[in-house]
Amino acid sequence: MSDLQRILIVDDSRLVRMALARNLKEHFDVIEEGDGESAWQRLVLDHSIKAVISDLQMPKLDGAGLLQKVRTSKQRRLQEMPFIVVSGEETEEERERVRQLGVSDFVTKGAGSAEILTRLTNLLALYAAREGLEAGRESMVQDPNSGLFSRKYLEHQATQAFSHAARSGVELCIMVLGFDAYEDVCAKMGADLAEKVGARFAKMLAGKIRQEDSLGHFASGQYAIVAPGTSPTLFTTFADRVREAVEVAKVPVHGEPVSLTVSIGVACTPIDAVGSASELLELAGERMGLAMKAGGNRIYSGDGDPAALRRVKIQRALELIAAGREDAVRPHLARLGVELLPLLNLMNRDYGLSLPMADIEHRLNSRVHDNN
User: Which of 55, 124, 343, 371 is an S-S bond match for 11, by CB 3.0 to 4.6 Å?
Assistant: First the structure.
């Protein structure tokens, strides 16, 4: 098989096609078609074609029509394919239309083989360079498994948001969140399955953020969200909703539900006086680490003690119990019991339950006092 790049020559004149092919066949694998419709079918089916040289005046489908089909195709390889028009007696209006359709270059009929070869070679080199840049950008931007931003691109997004926040005087918040005891999760599930669970979690998270926010990888089992123009209070509230959603979720693994928790670090400007986006991102990561060391399943934004547990409301306690997360409720039982005392008293009176309410109240208040 030939190692030469394949190009397609389209012209209703067999003599013209032969002349062009003779000049180019030493440098390219040349194929020919006699009208635009046949050329279009060949382009759709033959993915090895790298460029087109076409006449404008042709039967069935002229060169402008062929170019329009190529540039409006759903296939990116066709949208960006080098397309040279062989120009003859066209009017300036016809040439302008072809320019607007996205022609790559014009070659005048009768041009020498050296000129055609040079223009075609330059266009193919430009296309190859653009393809290389695009491939490099995609590898930098997207994680192949989750489709999320890579850490490198996330840092780029954070830098842009930080610069805008500094110029405009708006707030910028970043959270870094990670699965607690992720090494144990990997040991239990296997690294590949843990990665898939993480990707599923990230997909859920992606559906909850704003269009202007950026979600990406921070480290293994860890993710970050860059949220420009968000107040620290609202952002921390959102972070807690995320933490709560994970806490009650049941992830099926090999038919068995697995419970997971996340710890979250939050950093915001201008409250956190940092000099760069990378410092803000690292600060959020450090705070996530402190939250994990304090026991996990909590948020740390720099206020108070990272070990302090957030108060659990009665409705939340019921959700946790229903999800089988009783251990998450136990540290709050005494305080929740005190809150429920008025309800228990009412039930005791109306239903004649004969509960030792004085003893219950004394025990609960003693526990609350001991916990404090």
Answer: 55
In a domain, 120, yes or no: yes
Shared domain for 239 and 204, answered yes or no, is yes
Say whether both 124 and 157 belong to one domain: no
pLDDT > 80? residue 112: no
Tell me: pLDDT of 16 over 70: yes
Average pLDDT of the residues in 62-70: 93
125 within domain boundaries: yes
Domain presence at residue 146: no
Which pair of tokens denotes residue 253? 């693994």
Q: Residue 6: phi, psi to the nearest 5?
A: -90, 130
Give residue 299's pLDDT.
93
Kindly tell me if the per-residue pLDDT of 116 is higher than 60. Answer: yes
Residues 277 and 325 occupy one common structural domain: no
User: CB pairs under 8 A, 24+ apart, for 149-152?
Assistant: 149/214, 149/215, 149/216, 149/217, 150/216, 150/217, 151/216, 151/217, 151/218, 151/219
Confidence at residue 140, expressed as pLDDT on a 0 to 100 scale: 55
Per the structure, the complete domain to which residue 277 belongs is given by 151-310
Q: Which of 243, 252, 248, 259 is nearest to 178 (CA)?
A: 243
- Count structural domains, the chain: 3
The model carries a pTM of: 0.55
Q: What CATH number is attached to the domain comprising 123?
A: 3.40.50.2300
Shared domain check, 201 and 286? yes
Please give, one letter per residue, the 3-state secondary structure of 276-337.
CHHHHHHHHHHHHHHHHHCCCCCEECCCCCCCCCCCCCHHHHHHHHHCCCHHHHHHHHHHHH
pLDDT in tens, 211-269: 888 899 898 899 999 999 888 988 998 998 899 888 888 776 677 777 889 999 999 99
Pairing verdict, β 262-269 and 172-179:
antiparallel
* DSSP structural state of residue 149: B
Give the Cα separation of 242 and 247 in Å (integer): 9
State mean pLDDT over 23-29: 90
Q: Is 1 contained in some domain?
A: no
